[in-house]
Amino acid sequence: MAAPTMDPNSWYSLSIAGDSSSLLMSTNLFSRSGTAGATFFASAAPDNSTQRWQVFPLNTTTFVLRTQEGGANAFIGSQPADSNGRIAPLMLRGDVADESVFWTIGGWGDGTWFLANGGNGSAYHLARNRTGVVMDGNVTAPQNEQRWGFEKGRAIDDERYSSVNLLGASLTASTEASTTPSSNTATATSSASASASASASAPADSSTSPTHPSSSSSGLSTPAKAGIGAALGIAALITLVVLGLFLRRRRTRKQAATAAQDKAYEPYQVAHYQDASGMPGQRGEGEIKHELGQGSEGVKYELPQPTVVEVDARGQERPAELMGDVGRRS
């Protein structure tokens, strides 16, 4: 049976075996440095962004699936089998995805569908496992947990979901839409064209694990970068101001210390005075000047020291001289 005709401009709800009380959902790319997310079943909330799926056709049999919550660059795929052989689906970012994001949709013949991906091949189908999802290796009909239904919902009308940038291939959906008076939902027939030479057919037995994020992956947003730059600029300005104040204060202290040192060692001043003869003279380093204050008038008496006193010897008698040859009396 041929694959279903899917409208790339509509959201779909994905359920199992007509059980509309539980719908497949996905998270955003919260894990592995923003390259992976989770997918599982939750209580039905068709208008919740986590349960709105776009089924984007690459050709008549192969599709990629993404949610409004995960964004235009997050696709459901699968990771390699664990030690128990269990293969769990997950959400992968487009630039690190592998062939498991390419899904083939085939019919069971009762209006429900099975999904197989290019990473695990036709030997595995996407299946519900309680509240989770797995790639089930038992594909013999009937398999109730592999019977998928697609319920069409609101129109997408978002330019971001009009193309796919995946594994080096840029795919754009061209639509011819018509709007009926009873509904504002656009219906369309679509075709996908690849701008890169990539085959949309799914290999049967290839399985690769998600690679690490490429160096060109998105980092900080422009506002965040601007904020960091402004903060660094302010910090640098504050540092310069503090440094300037510190240098100025240091210079002021140095000048004050130099002035105090110069004042402590003033040159020796020579005092002038008059000696006892009334002649002007100078007091040397060994002489002491004594000043006596008298009352409030400030009269000062200077006693030069030492004082030289000269005595006139002209009026004194000369000493008597004795003859040395006078004989001794008998």
UniProtKB/TrEMBL annotation:
GO CC entries: cell periphery; membrane
Membrane topology: Single-pass membrane protein
Keywords: Membrane, Transmembrane, Transmembrane helix
Transmembrane segments: 226-247
Classification of source organism: Eukaryota, Fungi, Dikarya, Ascomycota, Pezizomycotina
Protein name (database record): Ricin B lectin domain-containing protein
Region Disordered: start-end pairs: 199-222
Location of this chain's protein in the cell: Membrane
